[in-house]
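Support request from a user on the community tier.

User writes: "When I paste my structure tokens into the form, the page sometimes reloads and wipes my input. The last time it worked, I copied everything first. Here is what I submitted, just in case something in the input itself triggers the reload:"
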């Protein structure tokens, strides 16, 4: 079997970085019978918590899969070069774009060893994502192109057409791009359930970070004139305490019938159960290349209220929720409408949401597409 060397800052038992970790876990299970897989990650979770793992040594993950969790002092290029000298691999797969450890180091090693490299930006090149700390990111991307991409045999992995355009816009028009969709978690046996409507419950599962744009929905709730009992629970690790404090300041202005609660990150095995206790999933994000939490909402038949900056489109037409431009008036009008939906109308939305997940899984042949993509890259 060919060898595949994967880099990403976080890997299970880390879980607070959300979707990319789940993508990698699903990818590994998909490919482990076709490739020898080696994954290099840090020994930390997204919030800096040190993982309970054996550090700085290759650990068997499953058949043909090994993982190494590196401490901070062992993440330099010479350290990583020594570590990978112990294994055989044919290509490198980089996840993310803004990490010195898992972007710059493997790019330098790829050029040094003349090994082909595949980069999955994981939504980090989206227009909305690049509006956060734009000057710093612009300089970084320029230096990345000039110093580390030239002289490398690099191909890009986009998960949809929009991400392919984002790559071309941020890098070069002629960037070589493979288009293969994300690998979500899917429960084929899930059954819909009835929910009480004495209180309308909204939920967001994501990083508590500016890119996710929680403040937009809070501002919409602040403008809402209703007697309905409303709960909005926000799950996820906090990446910026000042940002969370600003959200809390908005939430303090709400009347007594609207409650906002911040809750810790959800363990992957508990996501379905948590989502199943709410009426609507909310994510007014500035940009997602897939949105694993959105798909997980569809998976449990949870209608969604999201921005139009994700791949999930025409949701109202599909009776699965709403994908809306970030316009307060439009969101406020939609929110007033959904607060008055009856049980029969809501069941239609539940079925529509679940159908989006089922249709996605039926329309793609992800295993074949990923095997073909990596076979092509690794054989160069």
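"...and here is what came back when it finally went through:"
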């Amino acid at each position: 079997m060919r060898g595949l060397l994967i880099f990403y800052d976080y890997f299970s038992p880390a879980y607070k970085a959300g979707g990319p970790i789940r993508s990698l876990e699903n990818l590994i299970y998909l490919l482990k019978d076709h490739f020898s897989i080696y994954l290099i990650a840090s020994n930390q979770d997204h919030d800096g918590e040190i993982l309970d793992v054996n550090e700085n040594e290759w650990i068997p993950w499953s058949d043909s899969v090994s993982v190494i969790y590196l401490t901070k002092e062992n993440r330099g290029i010479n350290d990583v070069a020594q570590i990978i000298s112990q294994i055989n691999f044919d290509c490198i797969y980089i996840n993310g774009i803004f990490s010195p450890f898992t972007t710059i180091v493997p790019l330098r090693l790829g050029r040094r060893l003349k090994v082909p490299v595949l980069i999955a930006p994981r939504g980090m090149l989206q227009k909305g994502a690049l509006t956060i700390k734009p000057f710093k990111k612009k300089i970084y991307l320029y230096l990345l192109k000039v110093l580390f991409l030239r002289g490398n045999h690099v191909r890009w992995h986009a998960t949809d057409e929009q991400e392919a355009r984002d790559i071309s816009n941020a890098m070069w028009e002629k960037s070589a791009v493979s288009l293969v969709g994300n690998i979500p978690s899917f429960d084929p046996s899930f059954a819909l359930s009835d929910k009480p409507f004495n209180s309308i419950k909204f939920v967001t599962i994501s990083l508590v970070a500016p890119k996710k744009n929680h403040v937009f929905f809070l501002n919409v709730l602040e403008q809402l004139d209703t007697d309905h009992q409303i709960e909005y629970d926000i799950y996820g690790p906090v990446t910026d305490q000042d940002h969370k404090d600003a959200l809390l300041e908005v939430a303090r202005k709400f009347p007594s019938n609207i409650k906002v609660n911040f809750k810790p990150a959800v363990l992957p095995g508990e996501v379905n159960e948590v989502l199943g206790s709410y009426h609507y999933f909310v994510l007014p994000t500035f940009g997602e290349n897939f949105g694993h939490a959105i798909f997980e909402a569809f998976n449990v038949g949870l209608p969604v209220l999201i921005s139009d900056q994700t791949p999930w489109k025409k949701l109202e037409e599909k009776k699965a929720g709403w994908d809306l431009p970030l316009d307060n008036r439009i969101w406020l009008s939609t929110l007033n409408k959904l607060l008055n939906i009856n049980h029969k109308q809501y069941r239609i939305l539940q079925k529509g949401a679940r159908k989006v997940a089922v249709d996605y899984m039926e329309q793609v042949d992800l295993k074949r597409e990923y095997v073909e993509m990596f076979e092509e890259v690794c054989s160069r």
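Agent notes: The reload is a front-end session timeout and is unrelated to the input. The radius of gyration is 21 Å. The first helix runs from residue 19 to 31. Escalated to web team.
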